[in-house]
From TrEMBL:
This is Polyketide cyclase/dehydrase/lipid transport protein. Gene3D superfamilies: 3.30.530.20. InterPro entries: START-like_dom_sf. CDD domains: SRPBCC.
Length: 131
């Protein structure tokens, strides 16, 4: 498994960030512009990535004010999980976003850059929304 991580610190209560990240309808605001055909409910999203793949993601775990875990379903191009870890610290919330992907060597060369960019983009978008 290959892990891509991005961490930000946001000056908001952990409960506020958890509430936002727990509702999958809100995740469209975190996505890069090449995401298309967005459909969502509170528990799942589906979308396509321009010139790449279509994905359906489902929340598989919520732990109040600390974890939102999301899994790809319906035979994605490779096994992938997304995990938001939240921790209240002095004056801010630490937000760690990780993408864990099962990549063979060929897919690793192709997908590592875009997956790290996605992790960085989503945490930066989250921080910008809560300025």
């Amino acid at each position: 498994m290959t892990v891509f991580e991005s961490i930000v610190h946001i000056e908001r209560p952990v409960a506020e960030l958890f509430a936002f990240l727990s509702d999958m309808n809100n995740h469209q605001q975190l996505m890069p512009p090449h995401v298309q055909d967005w459909r969502s409910t509170a528990d799942e999203i589906s979308f396509s990535i321009q010139n790449m793949a279509s994905l359906r993601l489902v929340v598989d775990q919520r732990i109040e004010d600390s974890v939102v875990s999301i899994t790809a379903v319906d035979e994605p191009p490779f096994k992938v999980n997304f995990r938001w870890l939240l921790a209240q610290e002095a004056g801010h919330t630490s937000v760690q976003y990780s993408i864990t992907a099962e990549l063979n060597m060929m897919m690793k060369m192709f997908a590592s850059g875009p997956l790290q960019k996605l992790a960085d983009h989503e945490t930066a978008a989250l921080a910008a929304l809560f300025v």
